[in-house]
Amino acid sequence: MKRLKILNMFFFALIIFGFAISFTNGNDGNRTRPMNETNTNSSATRATATDIYDKLFGNDANYQAEIRPHATNGKRQLSISFDINIQTIGSLNVKTQLFHVTSVIFMKWFDYRLTWNATEFNGIDTINVGNTIAWTPDIMLYNDGSEEVVSHTDLHRSKVLIKDDGQLIWTNLVTNKATCQVDVTWFPMDEQVCNLTFGSWSYSKNVMDIKFKNKKKDSDMIKSGYHIPNGEWDIEKVEFFEEEKSFDCCQQPFSVVTLQVSMVRYPDFYYLYVFLPFISQLILFLLIFHIHPDQGDRLSYGVALLLNMTMYMIFLSDKLPEKSDKIPFVGTVFVAFFFLLSIGLVLSAITMKYSKHETNLPKSAHKIKRLLNKISPTRTATLDLSNEGACFPESFNLEEKNSSKITKNSSLIQDKDFINNIDRNGNSQNGLDHQTIESSTNHDMDASNSFQGWYEYMRFVEKCLTFVFAVLMVLVPIIVAYCLK
């Protein structure tokens, strides 16, 4: 029995050992085969890409990236298909006249030296290489305003896509800083036209011709799918031009393509923060003629408003370019208003001076009164300018007179009472002659009436000046706009 049990245990152990060996071998085989297959396929893929690269750019290929390719049709001239889509307008600096724009630039051409049979390389029909490995056109922005000059491979840094038929596609996201002739006549309600002119600096038109891929784009199509709107400018219209440009350095003309971008400014910022506050300053200035002449704040009030206008002029000067070929409408109007209000301040000082005169009104005042009665009888009916220097009637707001006049009139009344007392009593302790005192009193009464006459006459002149300056403030922008047109 013991031998039988030992044999059974031995056979059982052999069976378990056999199963363990077969299970281990099966797992090793399954694990090894995929790795071998993966390594084989990966090495084949790498070998295929390497073979294409070696075929095109290896030592045996004798390819030189500095040599311009010839056209496939046997012609000498190489055709470059060019396209541009604007991603965003960074800014248009009116003062420096620089146009910052970020755009996607697309170029396509053929190089017959870079062809292969895709079926011989596992169906791979495209590869990507660096922009210095294959020949690339040195198409740059002609009206470049950058301070730093770089080569086309430094500006366009993406790789070049090569197809098996020899077609090369080069797409780049580029930020350009272009010079732009800015017209500031109607700033900030202006429309600017900026050009982006591209061309080669090395190859003339007889060896390389640049053509737009699509010349029928509108303002919506020129904006790429990743277009970011600009808060100040909106693209209104785009135009494409293909032309030849000649330089003094070279006999042959160069092929040049130009994208002309027409933009309209959003003027809401200037309306809100410049024009509306400035108009309020003009309205406030009209109140200078309604401040009482005896109050010393009238001139300081006008000077303060002129200083505020000076700050607006400084703000505009920072926005406008320092050139004289185009006269800006806004700057001209601001300067005209500054001089107009300066004249108004001078006239206000003159009316303040004459409102305190104590002499009789001149005859010219009566002539002006008669003239105004002919023009507008209803407005000047209350103006009474008699030879005695009479004042305006009560309807002309006599309550605006200062306290000094009331005091002077009160003293005159007291003088008359004193004279009457002398007449009744027949004696006077001071020994003054009755007629001398009465003549002096009458002279003071005449001076008081003359003073009041000048005051009321100047108040009337100031009301007329208010109307005149209000009309001029409306006419000045219209006249300036008409002259600029």
TrEMBL record:
Keywords on record: Ion channel, Ion transport, Membrane, Signal, Transmembrane, Transmembrane helix, Transport
InterPro entries referenced in this protein's UniProt entry, alphabetically: Neur_chan_lig-bd, Neur_chan_lig-bd_sf, Neur_channel, Neuro-gated_channel_TM_sf, Neuro_actylchol_rec, Neurotrans-gated_channel_TM, Neurotransmitter_ion_chnl_CS
Residue span, Neurotransmitter-gated ion-channel transmembrane domain: 277-434
Pfam families: Neur_chan_LBD, Neur_chan_memb
Main location: membrane
Subcellular location(s) per record: Membrane
Record flagged with keyword Signal: yes
Gene Ontology molecular function terms on file: extracellular ligand-gated monoatomic ion channel activity; transmembrane signaling receptor activity
Entry annotated with the keyword Membrane: yes
A GO-annotated cellular component: membrane
Annotated transmembrane regions: 270-291, 298-315, 327-350, 464-482
Tree of life domain: Eukaryota
Start and end residues of each Neurotransmitter-gated ion-channel ligand-binding domain: 50-265
Membership in a protein family: Belongs to the ligand-gated ion channel (TC 1.A.9) family.
Protein name, UniProt field: Uncharacterized protein
Organism listed in the record: Clytia hemisphaerica
Taxonomic lineage of the native organism: Eukaryota, Metazoa, Cnidaria, Hydrozoa, Hydroidolina
